[in-house]
Amino acid sequence: xxxxxxxxxxxxxxxxxxxxxxxxxxxxxxxxxxxxxxxxxxxxxxxxxxxxxxxx
Length: 56
Known about the structure:
By secondary structure, the chain is mainly alpha-helical. It has helices at 6-31, 36-50. The longest helix has 26 residues, at 6-31.
């Protein structure tokens, strides 16, 4: 089995790093609200879930 050259190792490590950064950014982007309307909608939804309007 031939030994991988340094250039191939650098390329492989670079691709792994770029992929890890892209995945991290994607999940971070998805977890946050974008824009005032979406943030307000999420806050209202959270309040509705936490405090029921009907008495039990």
